[in-house]
Amino acid sequence: MMRKVSEIMIKDYIVIDSFWSIRRIHDLVDQTDMDCFPVADNHMIIGVLTRNDLIKAHPNRIALDAMTGKFKEIQANESIWKAKEALDMGGADLLLVTHEGEIVGILTKQVLNFEIGKHIDLLTGLHKSDYILYKSLEFLEQGKEISVVFFDINNFGCINKEFGHVVGDRILQEIAQLLKVNTPEESYLCRYGGDEFALLTANYAEDCKALAEKLLQIIREHQFPKNIDISVSAGIAGGRRRNARMTDMYETVSNLINIASLASTKAKKQQDNLVLGYCGFIDEIAI
């Protein structure tokens, strides 16, 4: 399941009165582990004070003079990825977290970036699967179709045993880079786990076939360490929709990824390199 804002937000936040002195707020920082505050005037939030604001402000000034108005609101049940987009796109320094119209917490860049860092694969630099789930749901909410191409390196365990994990890691890094560089715009790539990668597109499955074949060919032609022959199997899952979208989109996306994964396994067993999966919950089989 995707991490929600409510799971990482700061619940025990402190609201600063707009006429409090910066010196008083510095004392508050020393007494607590907080350095980012909403600022209120007559019980209404009018701005925020961040660590940078406090560093730059003279101790004799008041919060009203030093605060910035860069803040936004976000629903507590939104994903952490939605929160990141809100901070990145809006130039905001802090998010006020709301639930049923009430402020229930705050979310700072520091807290959010720490959490986001857990969802970046350290070896390849790619996102982990959580991000693909989020973008899939976003596509579906926008009324777009989605297809998933699942890549699985053939005999990777044997390569690790014969050449060592250092070489295996380098192969994973190079494949990740090849896929990343050749991933089309508005498509999203992740390291799904181990030697598996998943590519999300808003295209129909038949359009993904040519893309998958191109990526497999690029990997085949690449010269890997110690001239090791590397091949990858891929499975595609996607479809066309005739009727209204099913309500449980999370289950839809999870099933789609699973079908693509099973298709890649079938491709590996058949030594076909590419197998098209089918989606029973989507009205038309893709190909």
Architecture overview:
Strand 4 (71-75), helix 5 and strand 5 (94-99) form a beta-alpha-beta unit. The model is unreliable at 279-287 (pLDDT under 50). The chain is elongated, with a radius of gyration of 24 Å. With 287 residues, the chain is α/β, with parallel strands linked by helices. The strands form three sheets. Strands 7, 8, 9, 10, 11 and 12 form a six-stranded mixed β-sheet that branches. Strands 1-2-3 form a three-stranded mixed β-sheet. Strands 4-5-6 form a three-stranded mixed β-sheet. The protein contains eleven helices and twelve strands.
Question: What would you say about this model in short?
Answer:
The chain has 11 helices and 12 strands. By secondary structure, the protein is α/β, with parallel strands linked by helices.
Short descriptors:
disordered C terminus; 12 strands; 11 helices; alpha/beta; three-stranded mixed sheet; 287 residues; six-stranded mixed sheet; elongated
- Can you count the helices? 11
The total beta strand count reads: 12
Beta-strand level of the residues, as a percent range? 15-25%
How far apart lie the N and C ends?
30 Å
Rounded Rg:
24 Å
SSE sequence, one letter per element: HEHEEHHEHEEHHEHHEEHEHEE
- Average of the residue pLDDT scores: 87
- The coarse overall form would be elongated
- Structural class, from secondary structure content? alpha/beta
Helix content: 40-55%
Low-confidence stretches: 279-287
The biggest sheet, with number of strands, parallel, antiparallel or mixed sense and barrel status, is:
6 strands, mixed
